[in-house]
Design a protein that fits this description.
- The protein starts with 5 loop residues before the first helix and ends in a 5-residue tail after the last strand.
- The longest helix has 14 residues.
- With 125 residues, it is of the alpha+beta class.
- It has a single domain, classed as Nuclear Transport Factor 2, Chain: A.
- A hairpin with a 5-residue loop joins strand 5 and strand 6.
- Strands 2-1-6-5-4-3 form a six-stranded mixed beta sheet, with helices on one face.
- The chain is globular, with a radius of gyration of 14 Å.
């Protein structure tokens, strides 16, 4: 299901991550989107984003997101942020809780759907 508003991207991302569906997560990104990683590096393109997301999915996560600010920049661009909490399993079965504030740039496409262009999950910030 495509996002029909910027805010819906957060809802769909939470649902896809909690369901463990890397394909549904990738459907929320443009083909040449960029994802920032916790170490400060970035990856671009769906194949590289898939590898980064698989690391999160390995944690068997439960994600909760709360959309904060959404700033529309013209008809087809928006910048948004959300606070999030992720509970999962780290190495050796140790429970892990991560928190952060995302910052994303999203774009509306001709079919009306919104996709992530730049995704900074704000891990460790």
């Amino acid at each position: 299901m495509p996002a029909t508003s910027p805010e819906q991207l957060h809802v769909l991302f939470e649902q896809a991550l909690n369901a463990g569906s890397v394909d549904d997560l990738l459907d929320l990104y443009e083909d040449d989107a960029t994802l920032l990683e916790a170490n400060g590096a970035s990856v671009t393109g769906k194949p590289a984003i898939k590898e980064a997301l698989l690391a999160f999915l390995a944690m068997k996560p439960t994600l909760r997101m709360e959309t904060g600010t959404v700033v529309h920049g013209g008809l087809n661009l928006a910048m948004m942020e959300a606070r999030w909490t992720l509970d999962g399993m780290g190495p050796g079965g140790v429970k892990v809780r991560l928190t952060g504030t995302t910052h994303e740039v999203v774009r509306r496409h001709q079919n009306g759907s919104w996709l992530l262009v730049i995704d900074d999950p704000g891990i460790g910030k």
